[in-house]
């Protein structure tokens, strides 16, 4: 069966309406819908509409607080601490990013920690928003246990992602978005849904053996990127996002899928830099363009046609999918259709019509 194609803007509208019908305020619903569609546009299916059912299930279970707003609990100088109030993760993330941008405008740099948040989607969503504002952004998040420390066989750290966004001019902006595990947990969960195997170097089973079975991988442990280096990076992120902010850490971050008693209490950290404090933004972007062209001019191997900068492949995919539609696996389309019907929303209204 061929994948169904969806128009990105109409899909945002449909998903927004699902969240509204589930009890979210319209502006909050729009932000979460935008973040999910953003991921699918960039080809990060593990963080796209595949997450919609679990978000709604947690709302239905009363594990997400829809009637509160994230608040700046403490602010001093260039730093602030945001209490997410257990709101939808994207709502919390955007509030923290906006606070960081405000601080960087005033102080040259803004550092905002977040506690009491939830899964906030793809980090690249926030990096892209910061780039549009002409800012450099570093964003970190911890996550539920999924990855063992090097040498261990029991998960302790989350996949703890990191993203960096840096604006350019005519060239594509630098947008690095990566988990500290070899593969994001969402990719493995997606492989389970699709009945696919995974590469043997992604994870170990509960006995510490390499596995290509995604179900065994989820029962076991993901492996850190770069071995001990990825483990160290994951621990660093957990310290900044958890210990520093007062959010949960390691195995104390509650599972999005398996814990139905407690809020997640995810922690994030946003750091924005005001480029104008160093040089005029147009000059910086022109310098970035020249730098990127120099990187891309490096001679390639025989089997490589082009050098890409971080985020460039995803940016091209986004443009292509905005024009030609976002493809969804038939199983996901069926699941989303059933969910939409439950809330009186017509998923077919989002189909891409060439």
UniProtKB/TrEMBL annotation:
Keyword Oxidoreductase found: yes
Entry-linked InterPro entries: Mal/L-sulf/L-lact_DH-like_ah, Mal/L-sulf/L-lact_DH-like_NADP, Mal/L-sulfo/L-lacto_DH-like_sf, Malate/L-lactate_DH-like
Domain of life (superkingdom): Bacteria
Transmembrane segments: none
Annotated keywords: Oxidoreductase
Pfam family membership, one: Ldh_2
GO molecular function: oxidoreductase activity
Signal sequence extent: none
Similarity comment: Belongs to the LDH2/MDH2 oxidoreductase family.
Protein name: Malate dehydrogenase
Organism per entry: Brevibacillus formosus
């Amino acid at each position: 069966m061929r994948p169904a194609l969806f128009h990105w803007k109409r899909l945002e509208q449909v998903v927004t309406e699902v969240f509204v019908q589930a009890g979210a305020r319209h502006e909050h619903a729009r932000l979460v819908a935008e973040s999910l569609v953003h991921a699918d546009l960039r080809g990060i299916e593990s963080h796209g509409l595949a997450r919609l059912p679990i978000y709604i299930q947690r709302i239905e279970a009363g594990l997400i607080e829809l009637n509160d707003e994230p608040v700046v609990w403490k602010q001093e100088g260039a730093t602030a601490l945001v209490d997410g109030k257990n709101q939808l993760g994207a709502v919390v993330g955007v509030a923290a990013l906006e606070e960081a941008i405000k601080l960087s405008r005033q102080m040259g740099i803004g550092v905002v920690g977040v506690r009491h948040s939830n899964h906030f989607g793809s980090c690249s969503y926030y990096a892209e928003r910061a780039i549009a504002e002409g800012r450099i952004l570093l964003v970190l998040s911890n996550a539920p246990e999924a990855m063992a420390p090097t040498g261990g066989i029991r998960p302790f750290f989350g996949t703890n992602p990191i993203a960096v966004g840096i604006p350019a001019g005519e060239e594509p902006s630098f947008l690095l978005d990566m988990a500290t595990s070899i593969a994001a947990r969402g990719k493995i969960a997606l492989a389970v849904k699709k009945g696919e195997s995974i590469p043997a170097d992604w994870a170990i089973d509960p006995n510490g053996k390499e596995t290509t079975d995604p179900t065994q991988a989820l029962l076991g442990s993901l492996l850190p990127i770069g071995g001990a280096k990825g483990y160290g990076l994951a621990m660093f992120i957990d310290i900044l996002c958890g210990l520093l902010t007062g959010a949960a850490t390691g195995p104390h971050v509650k599972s999005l899928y398996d814990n139905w008693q407690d809020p997640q209490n995810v922690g994030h950290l946003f750091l924005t830099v005001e480029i104008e404090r160093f040089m005029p933004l147009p000059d910086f972007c022109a310098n970035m363009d020249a730098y990127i062209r120099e990187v891309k001019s490096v001679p390639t191997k025989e089997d490589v046609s082009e050098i890409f900068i971080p985020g460039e492949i995803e940016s091209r995919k986004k443009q292509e999918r905005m024009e030609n539609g976002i493809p969804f696996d038939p199983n996901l389309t069926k699941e989303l259709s059933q969910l939409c019907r439950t809330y009186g929303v017509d998923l077919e209204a989002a189909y891409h019509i060439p």
